[in-house]
Amino acid sequence: MQTFFPPQAQALVVLLMSLLLPLTKPFTVIVSDSSNQSALLDGPQSGFTMNRDGARTDAREQEAVYDIMRATGNDWATDIPDVCRGRWHGIECMPDKDNVYHVVSLSFGALSDDTAFPTCDPAKSYISKSIMKLPHLRTLFFYRCFSHNPQPIPAFLGQLSPTLQTLVLRENGHVGFIPTELGNLTRLKVLDLHKNNLNGSIPVSLGRLAELRSLDLSRNTLTGSIFSLSFPVLNVLDLSQNLLVGSIPSTLGSCHSLIKIDFSRNRLSGSIPESIGSLKELILMDLSYNRLSKPFPTSIRNLNALQALILKGNPMGSATISSEEFDGMTSLMILILSYTNLHGPIPESLGRLTNLRVIHLDGNRLNGSIPTNFKDLKNLGELRLNDNQLTGPVPFGREMVWKMRRKLKTSQ
């Protein structure tokens, strides 16, 4: 089971996964806004929160929730006389100044054995248009709800309340295009459409979502190019495992808050733009298994917060790594450059990056010897140099060789 963060989280949660675990695993950022929107008071009232005496749920919203629950196969909900006081996970409510409760969050789908969101009947569930009757909704979350009843993402979701901050439609079996109407949700902070069957291009209208902090469109069959990106507060951008073509837009460098970029397993070509060097907060960049064909930009050494750089499986145009290529990348822990058509010697600058834990340079045409300063990489736990043209001794003592054991590969 993948790791998720339920929409009830009360602050921005950014999962900076352990960099020794698989780095392409998608994750979701969930945002909650503490601002006093829609004249609602206090914090969300979950199923385990005592409501105030005399409080009541807005009658129109209660009927809407009944419709939504019936549409997901949860007819039992209609027996609950007050949905905001019914004590079930998956719904959150907040009171206004008149002590009337409004629905602010709806979540469906069994994330794990520890969560108790209402599950969906996968054979007949659908998204009810009654969602439009929830004017204070901030979070809408569906996980594995329509897998046996594939359907497009409803265009009417683009008309949801302007208070909406989180829209997660994850692994639902959705088909067809991403509705351009989603670009109308200008207060949205999280958009997660991971692992559906979505096709067509990424709508340019999503560029209007200037408050986005997490955009995950991974594991679909999206085509076309990546539009010009301009997301000033975006932390996570995951477009991996699609069929995207064209170049990486230079405007990516304007997304100064990025922490994670994952464009892996697409058909992107050309070069990594020089503008990438302006992403001073970037921690993970995975561009593996594309068709990038130019050497590294010189600006890459400006990424002094970067901890994981993964470029495996790109042809890279017979590139030679300059001796200063990685100078300045002092936070780097994982470097995966396998099968990138690299030539020439291994740069000594790598031996000065003492935080390195994993280095994969296998399947290239590197020659010369292993730099002697590799012996200073005391944190190194995995080194792949096999299938190159290297000569000379391995500059590690017996203790280091024993530490890496089978994770040290140097054979030709």
Can you describe what's shown?
With 412 residues, the chain is mainly beta. It is built from two helices and 24 strands. The chain has a 15-stranded mixed β-sheet that branches. The chain has a three-stranded parallel β-sheet with strand order 6-8-10, with no helix packed on it. A three-stranded parallel β-sheet has the order 12-14-16, with no helix packed on it. A hairpin with a 4-residue loop joins β2 (91-95) and β3 (100-108). The longest helix has 13 residues, at 59-71. It is elongated.
Radius of gyration: 25 Å
Q: Hey, roughly how much beta strand do the residues contain?
A: 15-25%
* Order of H and E elements: EHEEEEEEEEEEEEEEEEEEEEEEHE
**Assembly of the depicted chains:** single chain
Q: What is the straight-line distance between the termini?
A: 38 Å
Largest sheet: 15 strands, mixed
Q: Briefly note the structural class of the backbone.
A: mainly beta
- Unreliable spans: 1-38, 46-52
Helix content: under 10%
Calculate the mean pLDDT score and round it: 87
Strand element count: 24
Shape assignment = elongated
Number of H- or I-type helical stretches:
2
Secondary structure topology:
Layout: E1 56-57, H1 59-71, E2 91-95, E3 100-108, E4 139-143, E5 166-170, E6 175-176, E7 190-192, E8 197-200, E9 214-216, E10 221-222, E11 236-238, E12 245-246, E13 260-262, E14 267-270, E15 284-286, E16 291-292, E17 308-310, E18 334-336, E19 343-344, E20 358-360, E21 365-368, E22 382-384, E23 389-390, H2 398-404, E24 408-409
Parallel strand pairs: 1-3, 3-4, 4-5, 5-7, 6-8, 7-9, 8-10, 9-11, 11-13, 12-14, 13-15, 14-16, 15-17, 17-18, 18-20, 19-21, 20-22, 21-23, 22-24
Antiparallel strand pairs: 2-3
